[in-house]
Amino acid sequence: MSLPATADVTTPRRIGIAADHGGFELKQHIATKLLEEGYDLSDFGDHRARPDDDYPDFIVKLAQAVARGELDRGVAICGSGVGACVVANKVAGVRACLIHETFSAHQGVEDDNLNIICLGGLVVGHGLAWELVRAFLAARFTGAERHCRRLGKVAELEHQLRPDPR
Question: Whole-model pTM above 0.70?
Answer without folding.
Answer: yes
